[in-house]
């Protein structure tokens, strides 16, 4: 390993940042795609942090009990869809504030995951297999950093497909119409609550997959501090991406690369300011919140129903 690092020199840093961007960015990608879909329907889902934690616990527990990590991913996705359905049911009630409902559901899901996940802290569940894209190199460091999880590949494919569906399918047109004007959608005979319920459930489905990645790939364990606020940061990421699925992919890689910067510098012997650099994703989130909060920028590309802040 030492000789590999010596041969690569400073190339170790961009290689490690790229690898970390993919690993750390994968849950960001799935949660942001789910939130992008939900917000396109005119509804915001703050509860995705709880969905991420619940998906991680459900996926880990299912993989441990069945011996199949892919069944764990499916179970996590279904748990996310169920929480999305609960959020949709709450928000469909008259006078219910979407933000308050999301916070309540986030606390509920997190508490349930912690309660049922206590027996899962010690056991080891089978992990998702990686794709060895560094097979062409004899260097261990290259092989280790170019191991890509199949879920990342799936997320990369989902992003452009979702963008295409928004713009080229009937359901995508319905979704955007509901997100831009509920009154116009009702005048056209579209079911506003039904469309939003479907979008919220699919959004939760994706967020659940992001949670499964955390517990079944990277870091590949289950504990109560697993998500580190990624579900909440994904909401900011969607605003930064201007509600565009493909931009969500690049934004997720940006956040992932920021998270991987400190370990990458440490691998070549630079440890000064390590803890400050480790906080880079949170500082980036704060900066993006400030930049995107101006009246001229914050509503650009946003579904109109989000701006109206309705409680229907």
Report what the structure shows.
This protein has 312 residues and is an all-alpha fold. The protein has helices at 2-8, 12-40, 48-66, 69-91, 98-117, 140-145, 150-168, 170-180, 182-187, 192-216, 230-240, 245-267, 274-278, 280-291, 295-298, 304-308, and strands spanning 131-132, 147-148. It has one domain (2-290): ABC transporter involved in vitamin B12 uptake, BtuC. 72% of the residues lie in helices and 1% in strands. The protein has a two-stranded antiparallel ribbon with strand order 1-2. Helix 2 packs parallel to helix 7 (150-168) and helix 4 packs antiparallel against helix 5 (98-117).
Largest sheet: 2 strands, antiparallel
CATH class: Mainly Alpha
N to C succession of SSEs: HHHHHEHEHHHHHHHHHH
- Overall form: globular
Summing up helix and strand content along with how strands pair, one would put the structural category as mainly alpha
CA radius of gyration: 20 Å
pLDDT averaged residue by residue = 86
Range of strand content: under 5%
Q: Detail the poorly predicted runs.
A: 1-6
CATH topology: ABC transporter involved in vitamin B12 uptake, BtuC
Count of discrete domains? 1
Write out the strand line-up for the largest beta sheet, numbering strands in chain order: 1-2
Please report the total strand number as a whole number. Answer: 2
Supply the CATH architecture.
Answer: Orthogonal Bundle
Tally of contiguous helical segments:
16
Query: Share of helix among residues?
Result: over 70%
Distance between the termini: 58 Å
